Each structure stands twice: as structure tokens, then as C-alpha cells.
Hints:
Blueprint: H1 3-9, E1 12-16, E2 24-28, H2 32-45, E3 48-51, E4 54-58
Antiparallel strand pairs: 1-2, 1-3, 3-4
Amino acid sequence: xxxxxxxxxxxxxxxxxxxxxxxxxxxxxxxxxxxxxxxxxxxxxxxxxxxxxxxxxxxxxxxx
Length: 64
């Protein structure tokens, strides 16, 4: 596993480009602030936040 892969494995991840803006993966530090930023991006992208492959937040969890 490369150092990049190791770093990303310990971060919240958001798949970007879901709405057709190009694709990629954004990583956020494992902290309250990192999770908050990941959720904001996931909401904007129509995506979800994962950690180690497990979904920790998805758009259907939004309370209106």
C-alpha cells in the first residue's frame, strides 16, 4: 500500500463528480471539523461520506 493509500485509509472520503463535474475522491481528516466539511461536500455533490469503506453519512440522512 502506498503512503497516499495509507493516508486516505485513515480519512473520511467523499466521491466527487457524482453530478457530472469530473470524478475524484476527496479526503478529510478524522476530526469533527473534517467530518463536518466532508458532509457539506457530500451534500453538495449528492454523494456520501465513507470511512474505511463504511458509509457514515448519506444524503438520505438529512433531516429537514
